[in-house]
Amino acid sequence: MALSNSARLLLATVSTFALGTAAYAQEAANASSNDVKDVSATSNQPVLIAENSIALDAITITADKRQTSVIDVPASISVVDEEELERRQASDLSDILRGMPGVEIYGGPRSTVQEPVIRGLTGDRVVVRVDGARANMSVGHKGRFFFDPEVLKSVEVYRGAASTMQGTGALGGVIALTTKDANDLLDPGQKIGARVKVGYASVDHGLTTNGMAYGRPTDNTDILVSVTRESTGNFESGDGIKQQYTDDDYISGMVKGGIDINDASRLTLTVQRYSDDHQLPAAPDSGSAVNSTSNYLVNRESEESSLVLGYSYHDSGNDWIDANVSAYGMRTDLDEKRVSDGRHDERTLDTIGLDGNNTSRFDLAGRELAVTIGGEIYQDSQEGRRNGVAVSNLFPDAEMTIYGVYVDNAFAVTDALDVTAGVRFDSYDLSAEGQRSREDSAISPRFSASYRVTSWMQPYVSYAEAFRAPAMTEMYASGYHFPGNNFVANPDLEAEKAKTWEFGTNFKSDNLLTAGDAFRAKVAYFQNEIEDYIEQQGATVGSSETKSVNVPEAEIKGFEAELSYDTGIVFAGLAASRLRGENTKTGANLSDIPADKVSVSGGYRFEDYGVELGGRANLVDRLTRIASGSEVPGYATFDLFASWDASETLPGLRVNAGIDNILDHNYQTADNALYEPGRNFKISASMKF
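^ Hemoglobin, sequence as received from the core. Prediction below:
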């Protein structure tokens, strides 16, 4: 179903709608200022959640390492909080991020194969952090997300170049996953508790069970233990056909504890382990049929273990020290045995790292200057084996060490004008068995300025540079790829460098149409110029070799908007994005540039009964600007959702239900030949004790 006209119309009206509504908001606020209390002045107002997964009154830490309200940040940031995760009954990354502007999930519907794409950039160009630890696994066709949605407290997405504060490689953006701790679940005065949850999905007869136990053994300690098991069958697409080898079976566990050393200092330890076991094609993201040569059937086990030790110091009375430090280790193992002959392939990535920062605040003639100094060092070590023997084409044995330091300054020049300026230095050392080693360094500056023209409108401009070292597989993979095609190593690959301009406006207004309501909006236009963009060439039938090469200049530009409105009873949201990307030397389209899309939602809360009802629509236009292959048809999906906080009837009980793809539409995402799930009835119930 092509949605070209409707999608373009909605995209064109977003900015006008935002500006017009915000202007009206100012008039309404002035008219009612003598009669209605300004809810924005109350710090404990509920967070506004729109269906496009924006919690614009939530707090972000990815922007500047300081706790800052999302709506006041001169950047494109979205936060999916715990309430929205429950509403979506998320089982994978696609469920969590669907509808978010500028963000897509490629790789198809298999959860362990999914890859995030932010503003047309994917792979190592998107930094992924789990409780601060970098999740760096990235290998062709295999995916990089191995996590349990049941333990997530929030998912924060920063769109745009973010290397200065978030680490080398963040050309496209950052996805930061934060897990729950005991304090998130314990009621005031409660010392010990538990929660059990069961969920069911009809499209694949999936059953998810989770159990948590948590408590405060002493006044200054807390601990949480969680175990999740999910088992699914093959799902049905919209045409009623079972999609083979889409069944799954995983178990995940987490132990998270904390010690409040004193009123300012806290020490935390998080240990997680994820184990998945299923049968699928060797290239599960391609959607091509299973065959005996290039896409053979394998029994795959995916395991990921991580440990994060964190320390924080936050004292409102100390302007000199506001610090966070984390040390972490993560191991990801992908183990595959070919069904036909038992051939055994193993891939292992070990990441160890240390990350820290401190913010000092100074009073300059009554104006605050916040200076953040930080740095990180981490090492990736990867190893690939086939029947116990190292093979360079599979996952070349290689090692990369990266360290970086940065300083960032945020200054409130006036009550209306805020300016931020920072700079980062990165250096990397990359080596592999039998190959030439490489090292390089770069300086990445950033700058932003925002001006609050009125109480409801804050335009901003920002500029940021980012730096990404070539991935170990990009540089060193060599040997057999598929019949008639071989990988060719390229140790001369240059690091990618991005320069991103962004022009945007934040809108926020309370008491817009009625007392106590709130309107929030963020609109932005960006242009990202990338030097030495790394692209894989020749990975098609008829090519004799596959090689990663530098594209001298590439450009990605686009428009994004996200709006939310909430009265406490009625809520609505809209998100839209339009991106374009090309090789500026040849005019050729870049790969991974998503189609234009619009997400619309709304709902109603029956507060007296603890019930919420709502729906969403995701409209995706036809994709015609592609690097190779045929254009991809557009599609539309419509969902319904409901929740019931049954505490008045049975204390601790919460029920969520929904119908995804209610019209049973048969569709595919841009990069995948495998069809997405059809109509899916979902229900889950949780009980706290």
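Confidence is low (pLDDT under 50) at residues 1-56.
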